[in-house]
Amino acid sequence: MDMRLELVMVPVVDVDRAKEFYRAVGFVEDHDHTVSDEVRFVQMTPPGSACSIAFGRGLTTLPPGSLDNLQLVVADADAVHAELVARGIEVSEVDDQPWGRFVHLADPDGNTWAIQQLTSR
Q1: Residue 42: inside a domain, yes or no?
Q2: Could you report how far apart the first and last alpha carbons of the chain are, in Å?
Q3: Does any domain span residue 99?
């Protein structure tokens, strides 16, 4: 039996601000649908990913900023760091660990992300 994780809900306060942030990081907008006054669904996908994120109104009961350490995997942490800094995204320095090289960032609501370059095992 296959099981694929394809969508993660990200709790945010301001949907348009979140859209602008994730677009600046490089995510692609898949959907933005206002279903009713209570429900708005925005889906965005990181380039090359089979899993997307969704945020909006009426989608989750999690408090904004409560997701911690969502992880993206990249080929080159230094290149990603340089690109995000050039785009005006506040990121950590590259953090070298025995299990990978990491760049950390947070969205405007405080949901945190780790961008990992896998290293040889």
Answers
A1: yes
A2: 28
A3: yes
